[in-house]
Amino acid sequence: MLKLNNNNQFGFTAIELIVIIVFIALIAGTTVPMYGKFQASNNLDLSVTKTVQSLRRAQVLSQANDSDSNWGVSIGQEQILLFKGTSSTTRDINFDEIFDLNGNILVSGTQDVVFEKLTGEPQTFGSINFSSNNNETKTVTINEKGMLSY
What we know:
Layout: H1 14-63, E1 71-75, E2 79-84, E3 97-100, E4 106-109, E5 112-115, E6 126-131, E7 137-142, E8 148-149
Antiparallel strand pairs: 1-2, 1-5, 2-3, 4-6, 6-7, 7-8
């Protein structure tokens, strides 16, 4: 007859549990700051992409002479406004397209760009600068022919 020994117990000791908890805390402590940097970098990239797409859309609408009008983009701290008209203050609000920007991105430089009908050349040109809270910056440059580089 076979006897079973009841002294064999399975489980974790308190020391093993503490080691596992410390290990998990170390992993979490190193990944959280990296996630914050990734998120800030991603927000910066999204802001630049939205701006470039809006500028290109306004240029194409102007070149196509859509609604027989100029089209432009006004870039603020928290939004991008694509508008129909010769300026953002005298625009036709029925054609506005608004895109939100992340509030943690600081925008500076050229704020309003209006494109000429048919040619698509900008009335103003220059650079739009974007800065994130982790000191990363990106620049979108518009030359006198309407070419964008970023």
